[in-house]
């Protein structure tokens, strides 16, 4: 029935793609329906026009044609957000659903009674604009080294506990795999000396640019076995990694579980 009504309404549209409707048998059109969209002017006239669907100029097919010289222009903005942002975040979340998303973001959702988002949705929502705005030249071609999202802007944790005051150092020993961390050990609001400190590490590359599939890897939350007041701790990663490919994140959780987790701080690993 909806398709029939949309077809009838489409037939009412003039050759210019626009029409005014008064006392029509289908009711007063408001909003989108099928291939049409309707609304109301201030003078009381209801209108309907053909719905315009935006062209996708940032697909892999377009990119390949652009590189081959058979397409004059394409949208690197569309390609960057559709390949380097949303799929990467979704991939990270799905790969670490139980040990990361359920532990931290679902915890936040339950504490705040949020019903219209899942933990994965919340993580993507928190990070999509941060990563997008961190790309140096959004309208230019993705480059892992010079034109990619800055992972340090990510928030891997969310909660009502006071964040650590600073993240001063993250040093990796490729021979042993030990990552040494140093953070500020003071607090000013609801933080306590006894808050436990956790670490996560992201490992590049972000994308496989041969297939344009996400490859970013995330080491899930690891307990440093240290507290806020200690100011330093270690976690162990696989040996032989490249420090330049690693971004470390630290955050805290109160022992009483009253507030849950804090927001995260990040640092490029040295």
Short note summarizing the structure:
The chain folds into two domains: 2-50, no CATH class; 76-268, Sandwich (Immunoglobulin-like). Helix content is 26%, strand content 26%. It has helices spanning 2-11, 60-68, 76-95, 97-112, 119-134; strands at 18-21, 31-33, 36-40, 46-50, 167-172, 178-183, 196-203, 207-208, 213-214, 217-227, 232-236, 246-253, 265-268.
Characterization of the model:
- This protein has 270 residues and is α+β, with helices and mostly antiparallel strands.
- The strands form four sheets. The protein has a four-stranded antiparallel beta sheet, with helices on one face. Strands 10-7-12-13 form a four-stranded antiparallel beta sheet, with no helix packed on it. Strands 5-6-11 form a three-stranded antiparallel beta sheet, with no helix packed on it.
- A hairpin with a 4-residue loop joins β8 (207-208) and β9.
- The radius of gyration is 25 Å and the shape is flat.
- The model is unreliable at 11-16 (pLDDT under 50).
- Helices cover 26% and strands 26% of the residues.
- α3 (76-95) runs antiparallel to α5 and α4 (97-112) packs across α5 (119-134).
- It is built from five helices and 13 strands.
């Amino acid at each position: 029935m909806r398709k029939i009504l949309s077809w009838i309404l489409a037939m009412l549209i003039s050759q210019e793609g626009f029409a005014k409707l008064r006392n029509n048998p289908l009711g007063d059109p408001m909003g989108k329906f099928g291939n049409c969209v309707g609304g109301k002017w201030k003078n009381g006239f209801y209108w309907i026009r053909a719905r315009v669907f935006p062209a996708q100029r940032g697909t892999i097919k377009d990119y390949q044609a652009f590189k081959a010289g058979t397409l004059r222009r394409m949208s690197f903005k569309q390609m960057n957000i559709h390949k380097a942002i949303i799929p990467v975040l979704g991939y990270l979340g799905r790969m670490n659903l139980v040990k990361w998303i359920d532990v931290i973001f679902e915890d936040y959702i339950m504490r705040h009674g949020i019903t219209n988002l899942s933990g994965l949705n919340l993580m993507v929502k928190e990070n999509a604009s941060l990563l997008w705005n961190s790309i140096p030249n959004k309208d230019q071609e993705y480059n892992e080294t010079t034109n990619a999202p800055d992972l340090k802007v990510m928030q891997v944790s969310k909660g009502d506990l006071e964040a650590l005051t600073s993240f001063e150092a993250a040093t990796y020993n490729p021979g042993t795999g030990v990552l040494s961390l140093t953070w500020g050990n003071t607090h000013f609001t609801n933080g306590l000396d006894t808050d436990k400190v956790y670490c996560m590490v992201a490992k590049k590359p972000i994308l496989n640019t041969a297939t344009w599939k996400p490859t970013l890897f995330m080491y899930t939350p690891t307990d440093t076995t240290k507290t806020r007041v200690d100011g330093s701790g270690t976690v162990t990663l696989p040996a032989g990694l490249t420090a330049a490919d690693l971004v470390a994140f630290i955050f805290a959780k109160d022992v009483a579980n009253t507030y849950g987790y804090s927001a995260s701080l990040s640092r490029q690993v040295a």
